[in-house]
């Protein structure tokens, strides 16, 4: 379980085929603090298991299914990735409940500066609009954002300067793929309503 409050933007060192899966190695600093083998780390909002680490970075096994459902297939060496260690029960809780189970990819349609802030417009997968609520929450590449507008399967969010500086969202441009996780409570409500209609 995560909060969507990114701890640092690491960088991809490599993503290579390793037997039946892929091996992703990410350079990190803060995320290494207190890490043990088997820890869950959100990488661009996708929950991965730390399988190896040293003083400079962390390695993860990535399944083909994960590459297919996320923007990992376009990761290249040097690419910035958002990193968050799993939630500790004795810590503060900001953001919202994020599971690290990516629902699908979205595409950045517009990302522009408006005053001191930035306006982000993302088009999600077909049908995702039913999981979006004005003033609700959505995780974009693992960043907890407040939905500022919804139109069909597209949503908008304001990005504050701190988020621009502390995450990889500052590098995003129109046409980029982003990982999306919709609010867990909303997905349960949608499932219940669908079951009642059936």
Assigned CATH class of the largest domain:
Mainly Beta
* Helicity, as a percent range: 10-25%
The portion of residues forming beta strands comes to 35-45%
Q: Could you report the average pLDDT, rounded to the nearest whole number?
A: 93
Q: Based on Cα principal axes, name the global outline.
A: globular
The biggest sheet amounts to:
7 strands, antiparallel
Summed up, the domain count is 2
Give the strand line-up of the largest sheet: 10-9-13-7-8-12-11
What is the SS-derived class? Answer: mainly beta
H/E element sequence: EEEEEHEEEEEEEHEH
Radius of gyration over all CA atoms, rounded: 17 Å
CATH topology of the largest domain: Elongation Factor Tu (Ef-tu), domain 3
Which consecutive residue ranges, at least 5 long each, have pLDDT under 50? none
Total count of strands:
13
Termini Cα gap: 31 Å
Number of helices: 3
CATH architecture term of the largest domain:
Beta Barrel
């Amino acid at each position: 379980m995560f909060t969507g409050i990114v701890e640092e933007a690491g960088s991809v060192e490599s993503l290579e085929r390793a037997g039946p899966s892929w091996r992703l190695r990410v350079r990190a600093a803060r995320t290494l603090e207190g890490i043990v083998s088997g820890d869950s780390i959100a990488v661009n909002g996708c929950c991965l298991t730390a399988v190896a680490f040293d003083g400079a970075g962390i390695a993860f096994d990535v399944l083909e299914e994960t590459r297919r459902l996320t923007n990992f297939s376009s990761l290249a060496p040097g690419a910035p990735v958002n990193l968050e260690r799993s939630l500790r029960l004795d810590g503060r809780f900001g953001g919202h409940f994020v599971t690290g189970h990516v629902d699908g990819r979205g595409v950045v349609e517009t990302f522009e500066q408006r005053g001191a802030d930035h306006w982000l417009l993302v088009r999600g997968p077909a049908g995702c609009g039913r999981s979006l609520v004005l003033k609700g929450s959505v995780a974009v590449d693992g960043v907890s954002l407040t939905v500022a507008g919804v139109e069909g399967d597209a949503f908008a969010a304001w990005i504050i300067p701190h988020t621009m500086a502390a995450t990889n969202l500052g590098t995003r441009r129109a046409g980029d793929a982003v990982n999306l996780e919709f609010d867990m409570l909303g997905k349960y409500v949608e499932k219940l309503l669908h079951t009642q209609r059936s």
